[in-house]
Amino acid sequence: MSKVKKLKQYDAVNTDKQEKNPFLVALGQRVRSLRARRGVTRKSLSAMAEVSERHLANLETGEGNASILVLLQVADALQSSLAELTGDVTTSSPEWLLIRSLLKNQDEAALLKIREGISKALGAGRADKQLNPCIALIGLRGAGKTALGKMLANDLGFPFVDLSGEIEKIAGCSVSEIQNLYGINAYRRYERRALEEVIQTHPESIIGTPGGLVSDQDTFNFLLTHCTTVWLQAKPEDHMQRVLDQGDMRPMAGNQQQAMEDLKHILASRTDFYSKAQFTIDTSAQPLEATFNLLRNEMLENMN
Q1: What integer is the mean pLDDT of 219-226?
Q2: Among 103, 301, 131, 155, which residue's Cα sits nearest to residue 224?
Q3: 10: domain range?
Q4: CB 140 within 8 A of CB 267
Q5: Where residue 16 falls among pLDDT bands split at 50, 70, 90?
Q6: Contact 222/271 with Cβ under 8 angstroms?
Q7: Closest to 148 (Cα-Cα) out of 38, 281, 269
Q8: Separation between Cα atoms, residue 303 and residue 129, nearest integer Å
Q9: I want to staple 62 with a disulfide (CB 3.0 to 4.6 A). Which of 20, 35, 268, 299 is the partner?
Q10: Domain with 58 in it: what CATH number?
Q11: Is the pTM of this model over 0.70?
């Protein structure tokens, strides 16, 4: 049975049983996941997109505007994708379409090799197999990026750079003020500029990155290309407790249980991106000193 017939049939079923269309449910899940990955609340997204919170809530729960189903049926009839119908850049030329066709059935391992091959073909990154001496630590707040980063920098004789601090220097105000005054998109532009300047100024350094950097694909791709990347992984409970131990009570400003659920959701939405790092160190598995030794040995072993 064609997708069009299935959709029509499902629409008829929905009318009788008030069931949610699976396409709309999946769409809502992707919106919710993307919002979590970017660390944006529904209220903030409502203001940025000029869409009511109620409409966003309906969208995220699979009760969004069903007119997108019409576009899906038209795309199916034209044997194209929704992306092509809506003008996605990766459908804007024959070469893009041919590349998409080659990639669509590849698994993650194959896509990784392809991405690395593209990076090399474009002349990005190191030509040899040694690790880049510009080491970036990624992960959520409370992963240990600052503590371990400073320890590693001191051991290697490299400077430690807190990227959030560099962003604030460029913007002339705090991270929260940037986001409140200019919005998350402006913040991402400052983040990219700060990263480029740090890499150019400190080719040998340890960089502590903001947790949400991975939500901007262009910036994250730039980081993967120009730095050795280490994901400092931790349990959600450890992330939360470490932030509280630093005196930051913002995570608990609302409902404690809801704060933990939000943190878990953000972590889950970013895990696939964090896992693209070349190395992963579990900072919940052992004390700080033992974790540092693991990190140090991993870097020294692969940089020599």
Answers
A1: 93
A2: 131
A3: 3-95
A4: yes
A5: very low
A6: no
A7: 281
A8: 9
A9: 20
A10: 1.10.260.40
A11: yes
